[in-house]
Amino acid sequence: MEANIKEWTDKIKEINNNKTKKFSIMTMGCQLNENDSEKLCGIVDQAGYKKTDNLEEADLILFNTCCVRENAEDKLFGKLGEVKKYKEQKGTIIAIGGCMMQEKHIVHKLNESYPFVDIIFGTHTLENFPKDLYNAIVEKKKIEDILDIDGIVYEGVPTYREDKIKASVPIMNGCNNFCTYCIVPFVRGRERSRNPQDIINEVEDLAKQGYKEITLLGQNVNSYLVSQKQKGEDVDFRVVANGEEMTVNSFATLLIALDKIKGIERIRFVSPHPKDFTDDVIDAIANSKNICKLIHLPLQSGSTEILKRMNRKYTKEEYLKLAERISGRIPDVTFSTDIIVGFPGETEEDFEDTLDVVSKVNFEQVYMFIYSRRVGTPADKMENQVPEEIKHKRFDRLKKLAEEMIEIRNKEYIGTYQKVLVEGTSKTNSSILTGRTESNKVVNFEGSENLIGKMVNLKIISEHMWYLKGSCDTIQNV
Ligand code: SAH
Ligand code: SF4
Ligand code: F3S
Predict the structure, then answer these.
(1) pLDDT for 459
(2) Does the CB atom of residue 175 touch ligand 2 within 6 A?
(3) pTM here?
(4) What are the Cα distances from residue 223, in Å, to 105, 129, 217?
């Protein structure tokens, strides 16, 4: 369904007398949350607002929130205390959206303690934002626009991307998995997949604009179209990709179609669920030209008992076998993962199982999290919550092992040639260029700025834990 945005952005321009206004945005969550922020930026840009990082000069301050772990809440409430003065001084409009706004106790707290907030909107009502903003300006009354039911997947929302080389493209919304620690299914609703032709059109358009890398987003990308199938809907979509007609009816066939698009040199996807990693997806990656041979395979825990209580639906052995099966079929494949430490009831033995998996699978990157209790999730009500001190000690031990393993892995890169997509200059030194390997490792090297946006072949000369250094003598365009 097409979103009705233009009508409202035109009205906003009119009441602002076509004067350019300024806005600031704070994005607090995952890549899907970032993509939503790009849509919010696209909407307000169309309404005549230009971005500023200086909160003091903003006419509109937007927060796009996350609630997957507790620290996100502290961050939001801290920032709100800070922006209150701008509201008082110059009537800045304050709008808060995103996952945390789907939590009733948070909205209650906002209404009680932060009454100066103008607009509160949720994950299912992002497309209403221009209408909400218009009403907040005109009627000067507080707006709460939150839906408990799953919103429609809208197309045609303007998207403003700051990055001109890499872009993310959502392929589905929501999650049906209900891992017992996780709030996401409660705040993002059930799985809804986008129509494959809409995804293909968006990627073809990005390729035309010069984008080189695409990351497909979803909470569980490998169940793309599965919920439609389960409802008995016909999911054999005839699509056209790069002028070629084909059928897309699964995640694997979507990958095959996107791999045909000219100009896109890298396709990544996050996150697949190990329980749904089917052989057709492995084959699609193995036979592809552009799909990166780095697979993010969230482990969460290495203990079969904990995995069971997390409702992950795989065992330690099944995870290890899957990693082996993928490695067997895709030469040079690499892995990254997410791990939670200190899930309720996690014993020393359980934790050692996690360490065991980390020592067996040579992960390129391990994203580690301390278990955080989330109101409304089953794990929050479990007995045997692990004391904070033990959680932190385990986290430090996991971090030490993961870093040792990453260092060993990094050393294997030294002396090899790697294709690096050059993204820009280094944040800390503008005479150094930075890019990433297919396995998503950062590579810094000296080179001229005209290489930005190009794929180059670099010899790796040293490793520094969070980045590799490439040699400037060996640059070849590829
Ligand atoms: N859908 C994705 C990502 C979900 S959120 C997936 O299934 O992989 C990203 C990561 O946050 C999760 O993989 C998990 O490791 C972590 N996470 C989720 N809930 C958490 C919680 N309550 N405490 C700590 N970490 C959590
Ligand atoms: Fe959360 Fe699990 Fe869904 Fe990922 S798969 S979003 S961890 S419930
Ligand atoms: Fe993402 Fe946080 Fe929502 S991880 S889906 S922004 S709860």
Answers:
(1) 95
(2) yes
(3) 0.96
(4) 31, 29, 12
